[in-house]
Amino acid sequence: MALLGQLLPLALALALGPAATPASPAKSPYQLVLQHSRLRGRQHGPNVCAVQKLIGTNKKYFTNCKQWYQRKICGKSTVISYECCPGYEKVPGEKGCPAALPLSNLYETLGVVGATTSQLYTDRTEKLRPEMEGPGSFTIFAPSNEAWASLPAEVLDSLVSNVNIELLNALRYHMVDRRVLTDELKHGMALTSMYQNSNIQIHHYPNGIVTVNCARLLKADHHATNGVVHLIDKVISTISNNIQQIIEIEDTFETLRAAVAASGLNTLLEGDGQYTLLAPTNEAFEKIPAETLNRILGDPEALRDLLNNHILKSAMCSEAIVAGLSLETLEGTTLEVGCSGDTLTINGKPIISNKDVVATNGVIHFIDELLIPDSAKTLFELAAESDVSTAVDLFRQAGLGTHLSGTERLTLLAPMNSVFKDGTPPVDARLKNLLLSHMIKDQLASKYLYHGQILETLGGKKLRVFVYRNSLCIENSCIAAHDKRGRYGTLFTVDRVLTPPVGTVMDVLKGDSRFSMLVAAIQSAGLTETLNREGVYTVFAPTNEAFQALPPGELNKLLGNAKELANILKYHVGDEILVSGGIGALVRLKSLQGDKLEVSSKNNVVNVNKEPVTEVDIMATNGVVHAISSVLQPPANRPQERGDELADSALEIFRQASAFSRATQSSVKLAPVYQRLLERMKH
């Protein structure tokens, strides 16, 4: 009966499956990285961890999967070494690290993990060693020997010259009066130290790195009989000031202080939370042209955007950055934060002059260059950082520069520099009017534009929006880069000079002598009214040369049959507007005749039914005209291309199938559909 009582719970657990058993707690990022290091080291024996060592330094990192294959930390090469995982040691003559480290009190554990300097300084105080050897439960963040050695000489002298006050207080600040393992070290938490209950800031990053006041945990979770030891790479000091208070006491932040006060962000920077402030120094502000700086400082919204662009949404210590990261600011911009050796970079630039100043509500890095977001810039300033400098220079020469630097809400359509590779047009009244058509009233965002939307320009023109599968176009110009949204204006980089529509399709054709024969044909076919009325047409317009290239007599025959002429001309007209920028690898465009046109684009050459288009995007109020050098023939006029006509081989197959059917099943007639098909193929 006793045995049955033991088996029943086991059977019940097996029957219910994994869902019935308590789920194991999720591993912390640090534990996952340690697990990966152990996995990579298992070939060398039990409890062996693979460690990446930065060449030329003593820095070591437990490796995650990405770092394992890249073999780099902050762009610098590493070598893989294998050593005992935390808590284990070697046994002479045996493979790996089979033995657990002896469990001793905290004082002796400091020596076991190699924190002998911390152990030595503990010994020098009167009170601390007895505590570490006695009963209780403590956590020690023990600085490594190298951490103590790297302290400035005057700081170290101050500590060791007054061991029972300064040194004791410093060591107590590294202690917590309870056992805290890495799975409890949560990102952004604060632990109460044993020095005047001062807080220690903990950050636990997704890449497995854990920091304590921005000092990195080197080896963690070394258990002792009365607590746990974590080895860290720096001697940490108490923090009592929030970010705002640090700004107020640092001389190099005089301009920043005034800017924060004017923007009202001091409430945020002295409140609760965990932020990273990329704090611009006085030097950073001095690098900005006085006109730009005064404009931003005098504009509360631009100033707030500027400062918010220097605040990251979470605390980011430099030790946590081992490769490039995309981090979002409070302003909404994404900054690329990276590192090169010991140097931190922002958007690829080494502009951080002082790092890891820890505050009660985050961390500060000093920077020597302002990070001005697009939202605080004029259109001129946006264009200066884009591939549209030639176009903007034309706007300036045409006397339109005030629109690009003022407070007018508008959207600028700026052609890329490559559009002008063959030269720029003369600056005259005609060009000025054309450029005015590149300035749209109101500040737009491309993601909110819709097909058929009408936009009004500063020149009074009406422009249409065309949305295609892979492109967004305004008339014949398609957007070639992401929007740049400034303080008052938005910059759309476009792939060509925009040509506003002038007149209907018929007006366009009549106004161009190349199409005189086409115009006569349209009039003969009675299609003039169709191409004059409101609509959305794409006309592939054969030039005079195209008609003249027709075989002798065919043109006269065509012009003498109004119905056939209308049929062919309708085949040249698509029932929607398709500009060249909206053409992908292949677009099938339905014609007014009913059949579909096959329009393709490759290497900037547009073809219709495999015939080249000689000129694209002649815009009209009711469509677009593309010039072609041949007259297109509808499928019905091309019997060799009829889809229902089979090749000789197919006919032979059907004949053989028919003969086989008669020989084997003479009483069975062919199904009517096959009979009709064979009859049609005989003619």
UniProtKB/TrEMBL annotation:
Subcellular location(s) per record: Secreted, Extracellular space, Extracellular matrix
Signal peptide: 1-15
Segments forming a coiled coil: none
PROSITE patterns hit by this protein: EMI (PS51041), FAS1 (PS50213)
FAS1 domain sequence ranges: 103-236, 240-371, 375-498, 502-632
Pfam families in the record: Fasciclin
Keyword terms: Cell adhesion, Disulfide bond, Extracellular matrix, Gamma-carboxyglutamic acid, Phosphoprotein, Repeat, Secreted, Signal
Domain named EMI: residues: 45-99
Any GO BP: extracellular matrix organization
Primary localization class, coarse: secreted
Keyword Secreted: yes
GO molecular function: cell adhesion molecule binding; collagen binding; extracellular matrix binding; identical protein binding
Cellular component GO terms, alphabetical: extracellular matrix; extracellular space; trans-Golgi network
InterPro entries for this protein: Adhesion/Biosynth-related, EMI_domain, FAS1_dom_sf, FAS1_domain, TGFBI/POSTN
Main function: Plays a role in cell adhesion. May play a role in cell-collagen interactions.
Subunit structure: Binds to type I, II, and IV collagens.
UniProt xrefs under PANTHER family: PERIOSTIN-RELATED (PTHR10900), TRANSFORMING GROWTH FACTOR-BETA-INDUCED PROTEIN IG-H3 (PTHR10900:SF82)
Record-given protein name: Transforming growth factor-beta-induced protein ig-h3
Taxonomic lineage: Eukaryota, Metazoa, Chordata, Craniata, Vertebrata
Gene: TGFBI
